[in-house]
Sequence to fold (356 residues):
Amino acid sequence: MGDVSCKTSFFIEVSTVKVIGKRLKYSSKDDSTQKRRNSTPLNGLNVIDFHAHFPSTNWMNWASSWRRRLAERYGEDSAQILMEQSKRDKEEMRRLWGFAPPESNVCSDDEQAAKWAADLDVKDVDRVNFVTGGGNDNLAKIVRRYPDKFSGFAHHNIFSEDAPLELERAVKKLGLKGYKVIGSSQRRPIDDKSIYPLWEMAEKLGVPVIIHFGVLGGGGGMALDLRNMNPLTLWEVAKMFPRIPFVVPHFGAGYLRELLQLCWSCPNVYMDTSGSNRWMRWMPFEIDLKGIFRRAIETVGPDRVIFGSDSSYFPRGFSLPYLREQLKVCRSIGLEEGSIEKIFCKNAAKLLRVNV
Ligand SMILES: [Zn+2]
Fold:
């Protein structure tokens, strides 16, 4: 049953590509340039989504392991309440943006990959970088299916003993382009000296590292170590390893001030714009996306701000409303096109070492 509905929705999307006919499949740089000539929905702008999550079937395992970690820490009853709170929180966010709930019958990873590839075509997005995807081997396999459209990051446990070697394998053997860490869900601080060998490896490999600080949106604000809420916890590491491009997503997810200070002090720290940035609601003063972009550009500059969507599941797929909103904001604050191109494509292309 589940399979049938998944396949049906996939075929609908693929046929939409054919019916609309506004975009041809492309795989080379020339084709990519060609498609931009006229009035695509983005007016010729190339777009790379630096931060998305591949909705792997393994996702269910991840969700249950998160629940287990909460249960270990707070007890079964509390974990149950926290998971329900998280569910309500996600529902509220979807209501706010008019997103349909995630499909209940998750397709195979191959089908999900095909849906993602078709979705990028329909929405005129050049490339998506999946920062997670059911483990390094699994994500590498998915990326290899659509190398012109997908790239991916390693996302194994930073505190595992073989983390540096696994990063080396993920980059050199599997072809992943960077490393993703959810700081807020670690039990030890991110500047723990025991993981310096991992940063040494990232520096040696020359890959970017994206670290989530601040509230965990879907988790309703939960974190496992409060020190990892604050991006300034990265200060020593960013100073010690100035060749690693560190990217802090969601404008610091509630820690914008601290992130701006970190960026001021460490020129190797970038910020990504991904998601709905719903954390703004929990600031003790009025703040909006326009103000955030203006502040980021005035202080950090357009070279270190990177567009991301934080998209994952279907039927939503790539979250076009986030892209449209952010683009509108950038244009409304008078950003010149050169800066817009950097934020929505060129900065990511540089870090991922890909052509567009
Ligand atoms: Zn994310």
User: Anything to note?
Assistant: Residues 40-69+96-352 form a domain with the TIM Barrel fold (CATH 3.20.20.140). Residues 51, 53, 310 surround zinc ion (CB under 6 Å).
